[in-house]
Description:
By secondary structure, this protein is an alpha/beta fold. The protein contains 13 helices and 9 strands. Strands 2-3-4-1-5-6-7 form a 7-stranded mixed beta sheet, with helices on both faces.
Amino acid sequence: MTLNSMDDNINVVIIGNTGEGKSTLINAILNLNISMTGVGDPVTQEIFSYKVPRSQLRLFDTKGFEVEASQETVDAVDQFINERSKDTNINKRVHCVWLCVSAQSSRWQKVQQKFIHLCSELDIPCIVTVTQSYGDYEQYVEFIQANVPENVPVIPVLAKSLGLPDGSSIDAWGVGDLLELTTTVGNAFKLQMIAQKKPESKAMNNQSQLFQVAVGLAKALNQQADESLPGKLAGIVKLHAGIAVASAFIPVPGADIAAAAGNIWTMYVRINRELELPFSENLIKSIATGIVTNLGAFAVGSMVVGSVFKFVPGLGSVGGAAVMGATIYGVTVAAGIIYMKAISKLLSTKNSGQVNEENLKTAVDEIMKDKQSVQTILKTAKEGYKEAKNDK
């Protein structure tokens, strides 16, 4: 059963300052001028809702944060996201937030950092959407990446073609990529929530390699009573695999691989939080880097080619991402499986005193030494990319 047959909307809240390109982006997606039509449904005085035709996406457009009584707008949007995050109906929750910032204004303010922090607190996927991306926008993209968590994708777009003084023009680009990434991340987030409510959800293939490893880890923890745990763990990995695909669309060569590594580290932190394991951040970063490096050695051909494509005029992020998507997705899922296998190995020992940082690293190293097994894990994980796309 796909998510489409279960329902559904992926609810996307769009926020940003006045003049940062939100309306132009929404107009491009809806192929309408929202200021001159009545297609929006009022949710509050500050928020209007729009259903994207032939798509799962429902957009919640908010007033700009630099209009009269802007603090009231900020508070209303904050309240809306908080209240929706507590709704027991999964399909009414906020599944993604687009934080729109203009590459031409190059502003990064406290209000933007506030909503990044809010999304992190509520575990809601957030995509920083860099609108009006033309000229030297790459520098601003790099600046934002340095100021947001590793698992927050930064995606540039040009929603409307731009005429230049010499009579030439720059075609619109990036909007389709943004919609596809949002659908991937939103569905992964919904899968995670569904797994928390239904331990044997049909949306989570309980025969999959990932789910079986999660079941094994739950047994090693002696937490069979918590039947939802395997689904939660698998949901975390799938969510971060979806986020990882977003990094394939980062147009700065080399930044995609760095973003994928940071995303895997954040995934491990979430797994540890779910399992209440107190491993240090430095250890987890070290393990994540080691696993990504080793998995990258198996997939290095497509990852390097994909990154190089971003230098080629006319291909840009689209050409590179086509090569990178399945590989980064597979590497992320495989990294999650290997990490959970290592914890299972550690917890299966009789002596609970052996559950320490040094032995966790040793367990990871032992798994990575079996190259044939690692190759099989990675191959199966990459094959799951097609299945994930079909579940949209």
